[in-house]
Amino acid sequence: MYISIYGNVSFVTPNHSGIYGPWGRHIRSLLRFAGLKYGGHRCGGDAPPSLQTLGDVISAELRSSKHWELTGEGTEIAEQGSHEARVFSSIPLEGLAQSELMKLSFGKIGFSKAMSNKWIRVDKAHEGGPRIFRTVENIEDQVREKLLLVQRGNSCELEEKEKNELKKRRLLSEVTVKSYWITKGSSFSTTVTKQETELTPEMIATGSWKEKTFKPYNFEAMGVALDCGHLHPLMKVRTQFRQIFLEMGFTEMPTNNFIESSFWNFDSLFQPQQHPARDQHDTFFLSDPALAHEFPQDYLQRVKRVHSEGGFGSQGYKYDWKTEEAQKNILRTHTTAVSARMLYKVAQQKFTPVKYFSIDRVFRNETLDATHLAEFHQIEGVVADYGLTLGDLMGVLHQFFTKLGITKLRFKPAYNPYTEPSMEVFSYHEGLKKWVEVGNSGVFRPEMLLPMGLPEDVSVIAWGLSLERPTMIKYGINNIRELVGHKVNLQMCCCYSYVTMYVLLN
Amino acid sequence: MVAAPFCAFKCTVSGSYNRLVGSFFIVCWRGLAANMPTVGVRRELLFKALGRAYTDEEFDELCFEYGLELDEITSEKEIISREQGDSKAAGASDVILYKIDVPANRYDLLCLEGLARGLQVFKNKLEAPRYRRVRPVSGESQKLIITKETEAVRRHAVAAVLRNITFTQERYDSFIELQEKLHQNVCRKRSLVAIGTHDLDTISGPFTYTAKPPGDISFKPLNQSQEFTATQLMSLYKTDSHLRHYLHIIEDKPVYPVIYDSNGIVLSMPPIINGDHSKITLKTRNVFIECTATDLNKAKIVLDMMVTMFSEYCLQPFTVEEAEVVYPDGKACIYPELAYRKEKLSSEFINRKVGINESTEKIAQLLTRMCLRSRATGVGDEIEVEIPPTRSDVIHACDIMEDAAIAYGFNNIIRTTPHTYTVANQFPLNKLTELLRQDLAAAGFTEALNFALCSQEDIADKLGKKISETRAVHISNPKTAEFQVARTTLLPGLLKTIAANRKMPLPLKLFEISDVVLKDETKDVGARNSRRFCAIYYNKSPGFEVIHGLLDRTMQLLEVKSARGDGYHIQAADVATLLKPPLHMKSLCRKSSSTSTPCKTNPGRLRPPALLIQKLCLVT
Fold first, then answer.
1. How far is B403 from chain A (nearest CA, A)?
2. Quick check: A448 and A466 in contact, CB under 8 A?
3. Interface predicted TM-score (ipTM) of this complex, two decimals
4. Statement: B428-590 belongs to CATH 2.60.40.2470
5. Is B34-123 a CATH 3.30.56.10 domain?
6. pLDDT tens column, B369-409
7. Residue of B nearest to A239 (CA)
8. Residue among B14, B26, B63, B437 with most chain A CBs within 10 A, to mutate
9. Which pTM was predicted?
């Protein structure tokens, strides 16, 4: 049997796929008979490959061709004339009010086209509003002529340029037809042995599996997406950082207080009251509850003194420190506010060394862009002990980052209002072949620690970084909104790999 | 197993990866990156001042060591073409510019002169100059008399004279640019301090700093051809892209500050604009500098900065002619202060804090390289450090210690491990949250992560509530409606997540365990966080049993039995107030903390989970 079905078995793309025409049914049943799932997972996708996988029974060769078709609007024009021609013909010799013309369905488009063709003119000064007149006696409706050519199947008489122009006007569309040229294969047979797809309990019970032939698995296809829940990728990275701190013996700080007073957020950290970070443009202030109350009064007085007059070996900032400014409630701009509260607490008892960490939300009233949100997570580590050195800080950072898989570190002098010395932490990025900033660190200033009541020979070293940045780099996310917030792409959430921290930044 | 998939990741995302890291920037500790001023200097001028040329890499390395950052290598042409298009950039200069980020407290590095001086001293190629205040040759110093009226608006002023200065175009540009940098930085956009510089030869002292009603002030301002009253000026500058930012400082004051010379010529109307009459030109030889301020200490710093940086170009380099400022009470002060302060500390202190072991002499040398002239006094390991007027950032011994560490080289310090022994503890609430999240994901629910800030509408109107009924905290200065309040419930976030993900195959099962914020008068700040758990099941059919099943599973994990009384149960509740019909909520369940369960520390804080089931068409 010779099957010649050119143009009959066709897969019209992009919208249609299937087997059509008088032979279509025949082929479809043939395919079913051959045990081929039509377009199914087992066959690895769309129909064409499944036809081809009939392999030796029939051979199928893909042929595709293109032709032009009229769109709905194009068909209308072929029947009734182009919009501009209809505009022209609807204008009587004595002219027509523009407002009347615009009421017609084809009025707007037709008017501008007819104007540019110089078929009509507008008399704007006419009594009773602008009026339109014919400027020529006859017109030639070329658009309609061209479309009629295509409709009659003579599109080849048009130039490519003309066709593309009509396509731009959405009167024509180009259609691709994919066809299969089917011939007998080398082991062509009208009876095809059906290959089994799955092993069933019956086959095992009856032993019939021994006689069956099984269709081979298609290992190229993806497995079925499993129906399971997922943790949020940012929270997974958070868990990893949390784990690292716990492994290093750091205790988690209670950071569940988003609302903080300026006192703990800034003043206790020796950040002066005119510091730009305390500006309306940078920090969210609260209108309700606007002010905080109940500060440890003697501590507050010591803070006031160190800011305005100095003391504890410091010159101070020499300005008029105001309690009202310190009372202002804000959304905390860093978790360091919690560190300050914790260190104050430590100072109220007989000193024992502590190691603290936190990973939680902070808020900034900043200009938003693809990588900056008004809220993000800050990771912070703090060590307080007698006689800690700058070398110790570097050593701890080295250990911390080694656990992330980052071993090549170097430090750049920097400035923080509440640490001195301050160091930015850079890591060598193998991919970029350059040093990139991965965190910030420093030794808390005596002006911050001594008013709290910590012993003079106790040093506190600390560092911080953001959680979002390394996570975005890890997952190749350009827009932070895809990661955090309701616009998150849940599909993507499910696709994230297991978080392997040691490759986080390289 | 783990490494292999990651390799694949590396290759496939390398494109986006580079873009990302190109702008790599860890926002974290406050007051650093966002406020770091950037200074633009011409590379050839910088290298000339440094006495040698560097490759870009070498210079970048030097910056890194000193605590600067070579942010960008560009040109005027490139900047204009980037901001305004190629056509505008056609005639612009393509001289290479270095954009250098300077630490926010180092005002002495905000211009080419200071940068070059600092780096030259650091490289041991120059001894830090000694800045001297001198009496005028004529014997009579310039006087600035402050009247009582200024107290209502801007009470402080300081002044100084740069005598026999020689400007070139580059020096002049740098002089103007430094004022601008100081204005933006230490002067806090002119609100704390405003600088006015004048050609002394066009005016004659004594000068009067007073304040007058705006209608009474009239002068020809800088770069204008006619006189305006102060009232007119304020409306004129409303549309000025640069000056309009400063108007608010005095706008609502009854009187505006103004400085006159002895002939009634207006020098300036601080902090807005100078007069045109006394403007500086390339030909100017003698400069009168005045700084008016609300913060005297900052004014002194700013004046010191201006004169130390540019006295280099005076006939007698690094000398500044004094000026006398007379206060309303008759008290007279001589400025600039140019105060050198002496501190004594031990080398042991520095060695101990940094973690190095250097001799007293070596440490004195290190400090001297940071413009802090130091010497071993010979008394034990004592070092005497002289802090120059340019280093107003040095306010404590720890600042001196840092400079020693920078000069030693941070990366030359041996990294050590502290012997601090501690036992780690998790914050119990977070520990429970971590455990629960794992099991909720295992139960087939996917974790969402929503913003803690939202609009009033999100937590009130959209849930059929009045905002006054919520215990929400309100933000006073939100830039958009998205940041009006802190959320009081997790529900709106989850609903929005679903709305944004309607293309996902159904059902959608989401959960979130996170903090909401509620007003609480018992707290010092008047508010507290509350940890909540919210789950949502979204499908074409309600499926209440699914959410019920999740509740049962959660309670099972928390070891709370299903029972009336000492356990949990579900009962019908009127939730019309919570969600507008036809969004209906079938059930609300609560559980009081049971003291007999092992997880007694926390279930009480996990407030009643809001369970809801809703129909597909309703989430829009």
1. 8
2. no
3. 0.85
4. no
5. yes
6. 999 999 999 999 999 999 999 999 999 999 999 999 999 99
7. B434
8. B26
9. 0.76
